[in-house]
Automatic annotation (TrEMBL):
Belongs to the anti-sigma-factor antagonist family. Residues 4-112 form the STAS domain. This is Anti-sigma factor antagonist. PROSITE patterns: STAS. It comes from the Bacteria. InterPro entries: Anti-sigma_ant, MlaB-like_STAS, STAS_dom, STAS_dom_sf. Gene3D superfamilies: STAS domain (3.30.750.24). It comes from Streptomyces fimbriatus.
Amino acid sequence: MKPLTITASHVPAGLALEVVGDLDYTNAQRLRHAAQEAAPPPGRSLVVDLSELGFCDSSGITALIAVRNHAVAAGSEMVLVAVPANMRRLLRMTGLDQVLDIRDDLHPLAGD
């Protein structure tokens, strides 16, 4: 099990959270908390970088949905970038790829 770290930073589109390690039932609440603290202003994006995500269980997916819902309620959007192949497959199988904004990288957001 890889420990979870979440790092917040500013990006042209708004704010970014880099999620590194394993996102599971023991720490999913940390992602929700980090997203609430890093909430971008209305009209901006919360970018969640999953390029270094090692593992994600159902609690992690639930946290991602909660983060997205919180962002939308605040007038922002959440974008997942660099989603690992196994996670993309899971999101596709559950239909969440139709709900979550998934992009390959940050570059398309630079002009947002």
